[in-house]
Amino acid sequence: MRILPFAGLALTGLLLSHTAHAACDTVLSPEVRSIDAAGTYCLAANRSAPIEVRADNVELDCRGRTLSRPSNSPGFGTGVLLRGDNLTVRNCRFEGWQFSVLAEQFLNVQILNNTFIPEGPAITAYGSDRPEGDGLRVIGNRVLFYGSQNGAEQAIGIWHSPRAVLTNNVVAGFMGHAALQLDRSPDAQLTGNQLLDLNEGGSVGVDLIFSPRARMVHNTVMLRRGVNAHGLSGASEATCIENILINAVHSGLEGCVVTRHNVDQINNGD
Q1: Distance CA 235, CA 215 (A)
Q2: Helices and strands of the chain, counted as H and E runs
Q3: What is the dihedral of CA 104, 69, 56, 62, to 10 degrees?
Q4: pLDDT tens digits, residue range 66-125?
Q5: Which of 158, 175, 163, 90 is nearest to 132 (CA)?
Q6: Residue 162 · residue 132 · CB < 8 Å
Q7: What does pTM read for this prediction?
Q8: Separation in Å, CA 204 to CA 182, 244, 248
């Protein structure tokens, strides 16, 4: 069985990026680094300065523009910091940040249709352990680690945020520990995510740490070779349906209480 058809189909997501041009209340000028009032903000040009959102009911639409770490910055910093309720970040391109998007002290945050070329975790969220969930939605993002100098422990990391939804995200070329890591975040829904060209020496596609009852449907995990890597780690009471695991020597599917129509294939051929 050859894996190229899977890879070719999945990588098309890297080339397709729909940029919505919704109404914009305020064009954020380059010198403004803090958003302190509700509204819809957009970028009219690329910028090399971070943005802090410290208000409720804010949407930041970069409209395809790039937020890049300043070349003279002594550290890597955070591209966008989110603190508040009902926040959205969409259509941004992040380059060179240690933390591209960091959400904390939040409720109902959406991170949509962004592209990341990071020097650390692309998306990091620290929730509040609300049993009903924090309303976290991470959808349609593309994370590319090719050329990264520093790497990261996880590409997307979620802590203490029950019922998080991660849908149709792509992570490619990741060399760290876990492409998706959920720690103390039970009842997550992971659908249609594509974790491609991962490090075969010890990476984990999806790492669930004290995060039971995850629902995993139509996800793809592809390691470079079948050496010593995990497709899924820490699954407890999980539902695993129609996932594709390529070169995951340790599939991790045995932790799922429901398993249907998953593909688990080792292919070390040329």
Answers
A1: 10
A2: 1, 27
A3: -130
A4: 999 987 666 559 999 999 999 999 999 999 999 999 999 999 999 999 999 999 999 999
A5: 163
A6: yes
A7: 0.90
A8: 12, 14, 9
